[in-house]
Amino acid sequence: MQNKRRPIVAGNWKMNGSVELAKQMMxxxxxxxxxxxxxxxxxxxxxxxxxxxxxxxxxxxxxxxFDSGAHTGEVSGSMLKALNCDFVLVGHSERRTDNGESDLxxxxxxxxxxxHGLTPVLCVGEPESVRDSGEYFNHIQGQIDAVISVIGIASxxxxxxxxxxxxxxxxxxxxxxxxxxEVHAFIREYVGKLDAxxxxxxxxxxxxxxxxxxxxxxxxxxxxxxxxxxxxxLDPQEFLNICLAAKG
Length: 248
Ligand code: PEP
What we know:
By secondary structure, the chain is an alpha/beta fold. The chain has helices at residues 19-30, 77-82, 93-98, 103-115, 128-133, 136-151, 177-194, 196-201, 212-219, 236-247; strands spanning 8-12, 38-42, 57-60, 87-90, 119-124, 160-163, 203-207, 226-229.
């Protein structure tokens, strides 16, 4: 059993939520005792400014690889910073699928996020067909290699990785704690071959149908350092219970 890192529980609202829900979430989190957990909410961009005063962090769900200019509909790292974001999700599987984001584009976005002082939450994970073929380690290694090739291994000290098996996102089909631990250990070991200290400090979140009912068992795995929560982050009390599970 290795030293546990400080846990993070991140909520990804996707294209859901409202100013009212932001207020409810703030009330719920602000009145809880969560000193030992980093709490992060990634709402849609229009609701970022509704999170004040918040006893947690806020983050974007995406950022542009460009800093400014003729890129209608895009949001830059400096804009996220201006709205008090500390984090940004990068390479969520829905962006990879819906927007055709390649491993290299994702890597470039990780680089741009770091350049703007944002902590990227790099999402990796295999689709069901890759899981079934047994090639999932190779798939995830490829996603990580692309980022290493662009930012170098030392920069992994400043990023968070989220393992999100695509077949478990929004499906109610959670990876078992053993399946999650197997991949988290693989990622840590792979990074550790290049830099043992970076690997030891790297926070690796699990995402995919996490709920309060299964959070405890997932988060108690030695290489699982918290969670990236989609659907359940739209219910403030459920999300709080997941945060409390990460507290241990
Ligand atoms: C996600 O959106 O990243 C996610 C893990 O969703 P869910 O928790 O709903 O599976």
